[in-house]
Amino acid sequence: MTEGNNVTExxxxxxxxxxxxxxxxxxxxxxxxxxxxxxxxxxxASPPAAEEVEFVHPEGGWxxxxxxxxxxxxxxxxxxxxxFGLLFLSMLxxxxxxxxxxxxxxxxxxxSLSMGMIFFCSPIVSIFTDIFGCRIxxxxxxxxxLVGLLASSFVKSLNVMYFTYGVVFACGCSFAYQPSLVILGxxxxxxxxxxxxxxxxxxxxxxxxxxxxxxxxxxxxxxxNTLRVFCILMFVLIxxxxxxxxxxxxxxxxxxxxxxxxxxFNMNIWKSxxxxxxxxxIPAALYGYYVPYVxxxxxxxxxxxxxxNKEILLLCIGITxxxxxxxxxxxxxxxxxxxxxxxxxxxxxxIGVMSMMIPLCNIFGGLIGVCLLMGLFDGCFIxxxxxxxxxxxxxxxxxxxxGFLLGLMSVPMVAGPPIAGFLxxxxxxxxxxxxxxxxPPIIGGIVLCLIPWVEARNRRKQKEGLSKEYDANQKxxxxxxxxxxxxxxxxxxxx
Length: 495
Description:
Helices cover 80% and strands 0% of the residues. It has 495 residues and is mostly helical. Helix 4 runs antiparallel to helix 12, helix 7 (122-132) runs antiparallel to helix 21 (398-427) and helix 15 packs antiparallel against helix 23 (439-448). The radius of gyration is 29 Å and the shape is globular.
């Protein structure tokens, strides 16, 4: 009945619909050839007729405002996180004492918890975004982040700071951050790569400018008032979330209720051996990744004195990270398939070696060179996350693939800096901490080298399976023809 109604509507609306009656005839003929199989094809042919109108992305317009809002979100969230090294020094003076043997270990938990919770909440944020939409999730997350940051400005002990800054503020940032990337797909398709590059460059811009502002604020108004000033960034982030006007058509209610569990707990991504290796290799490489962001400022102050312009190191990391995202993002477009993983392998090898080089730099200029290279390949690692996920699991499952990976990344992000702080407190020097921080990226990079080989082997197996299936189908067709010919000969002889 539905098909009949659709044909009638098309006859009345489309003057060229005179060809439409041909379709039922073909469906009937196909049914006579292979009844049950062809009926399924006829039933599957009706939904495209009903969903004839395809969504067209604006590729601009209000989308540019959304892009700027997303850029502000990316910059404010990760700009604050990447500048935690300066907050770390202020917290050491604010909450610590000279007789505390575990001061750096306990203080580093604040920054590592904050960065880890941003990634840990990613799978949960994906579910909230699917259910409530980008605007509600982002605005609510920014409001929670504002409350957490404001509460942190009144805290007088590290134990409470773990909760207000490390959990509440970080969870709010996570809920505000992920929708800012999802909403871009509502407005851009052809220009999505360019827009993503501009948005992710926001963190580099904030990382360049924020350390100088932060150091001046900490020096003149103190830690508590500095955190209150940062609340302005979160308030603007709330306003930015209101610009996330969704454009993509909502999915049918039947789909939302019937397949919600399958969308939330998507097991298809784990069927890919390449993705399983990727999901293990990336977290394994990140145990030392965040250590320089937390402890580098403290190390420079100990090694070269408190008067050295240590903010210049964060400036170098921010500039080259922004540059690396544009350079390697363009290079990745010319690398075929899962071979894009080799760019991440190169990134982890360079980052690991540079971490080990930090204690060997006897002059401040050497540290500048190390930070320039670390920032460049940090940008490479970040910008090709989504393209690699697309190659490993496909476009249909890429969102949850990235969400689960970010969740797994939270464990090393949390564990790495406190371990480095513990080693500094026990050994009296950061040298061993930075040496050990360079080992996990190298090991993780070696593990990732298996992915292209595994994917190539799977493609060969698929081709062999398809060729065998094709040969079997050809034999079946030849056998059916031989049987028909035999029947025709018998019929001719009877006649």
